[in-house]
Automatic annotation (TrEMBL):
One of its GO terms (cellular component) is Bam protein complex. GO terms for biological process: Gram-negative-bacterium-type cell outer membrane assembly; protein insertion into membrane. InterPro entries: BamE, BamE-like, BamE_dom. It comes from Sphingomonas lutea. Residues 1-22 form the signal peptide. The keyword Kinase does not apply. Residues 29-104 form the Outer membrane protein assembly factor BamE domain. This is Outer membrane protein assembly factor BamE. One of its GO terms (molecular function) is protein-macromolecule adaptor activity. The keyword Thylakoid does not apply.
Length: 150
């Protein structure tokens, strides 16, 4: 009877612990509806009609406002691990000088970059100095051999 209670308690603790490992799906950025994007036609639509369909862009071009970018990302995170990208969409709507849609480009997850830092230390050229060289290396060398005002 005591063994049965311990077994039941162990199963309850295991069930609670496993719920912490459940994945959390998240969506960040614009909501890009494929059917609405398919209705945008170059030469027919303009900035006002695109804004009505898709909303304000995530950001515009850096040097001109003729490029509108809509960016969306779906991720999954398990417990305390880094989130992994499930789906990413970047939609570029390019306008001509008159404000009409010139072209639409779509890209996906292939543009996600993985950056690997170099051992958390920046490689430099030159002499390696120890801790004590860094602290005591300049004693007596500041202003040595120089006349005042030089």
């Amino acid at each position: 009877m005591i063994f049965g209670r311990w077994k039941l308690a162990a199963m309850a603790v295991a069930a609670v612990a496993m719920t912490g490992c459940a994945g959390v799906n998240m969506h960040k950025g614009a909501v890009i509806d494929d059917q609405l994007v398919a209705t945008i036609q170059p030469g027919v639509d303009n900035k006002a009609s695109v804004e009505k369909l898709l909303g304000r862009p995530s950001f515009t071009g850096q040097f001109s406002d003729t490029d509108w970018y809509y960016v969306a990302r779906d991720t999954k995170q398990v417990a305390f691990r880094n989130p992994s990208v499930l789906r990413q969409t970047a939609l570029l709507v390019r306008f001509d000088q008159g404000g009409n849609v010139a072209s639409i480009h779509r890209s996906g997850k292939e543009l996600v970059a993985s950056v690997d830092p170099s051992n958390r230390r920046t490689p430099t050229l030159g002499r390696e100095r120890s801790f004590f060289d860094e602290i005591f290396g300049n004693i007596g060398s500041v202003g040595a051999g120089m006349a005042p005002g030089q």
